[in-house]
Sequence to fold (341 residues):
Amino acid sequence: MKYILTFLLVALLLFSTLSFAGLVPTPVVITGTVCNDDEGEVRLTGTLIRVSDGQNITYITQAETYGRFSLTLENRSYFFLLSRASYPDQIYLYNADSSADISLIMPTKATVSKVYGRLAGAAVNQTTIYLMNGGLVAGRANANRNGLYLFPSVMAGDYELRVGGSNKSWPVKAVQAELIKLDLNLAKQPSLSMAKREWAHNETVFFGVYEDNASCAQAEAVIKNLATNSTLKLLSNSNGTVSVSPLTPGSYEASFRGVAVDFLVLAPSMPPANNTANATNSTINPPAQPPAAPPPAQPAQAQDNDSIGLMAIPALVVAGVLVVAVVAVFAFVIYKGYIRL
Fold:
């Protein structure tokens, strides 16, 4: 009996330690009711509830008797996407900090759109996202700790989303009452521009490298011989241009931060194809900027919201194995009399 009590005590202490250290996620139980208004008079049994972490659907369930549901989730932010026949789809952003009982409302009609998504590519917690309408701020939303955001009330019209501290913008068009998903990435987007794809054997090959359409000076690019797999690393000049002395005839690949372009260096007996670009030009114009979004129409309202999460089963399995192993060793030591309690 003494050994059983010791075993249970050690298991409890170890599990508590792992939970405190964050190795074992603390589950959060969210229960609630789906109904069609704030009064909760009509319970919507059978409503489909999909839980999303902003990238993937991680859990799917249905409201049961009296519209009740229960979810065991990880402590983080999630989208709740609700679907039901004869009802417009609804979305909620919920932050599952602790167990709670909540109400999810599905109105019979919808008059506004909802714009939602995930902000990535930088520190995102409490980053402000602006819904712009003709140069005016029509709404604001703060990305939460997991980068999720939601504009819950967007009137029909043309808008663009902008992120505080960034010059990037994303066009969005709300036609009717609908759910519009738009993920925002603040990471700089690399690009590579080459004047032509066929070069004479005695020409200097050159191309431009960019980030967000701006020239990248002193940036590393790579030229790879596709026949031998040999590579050559080069740095761009102050104009973002990379050049290399005449190359051996063959097939090559120029790459810059994940963006690649194939090109060919012709043998002396092979006449080059007609190319309008001038290979001796030492500068390259950046890619054309995308067209500006059309002038938007009506303003919209937005509000800050938070979200919900799922339990990490692999972490629990690992923690369970650790608990069993440590307890087994401890019990063996006690059994052999190395430690007296």
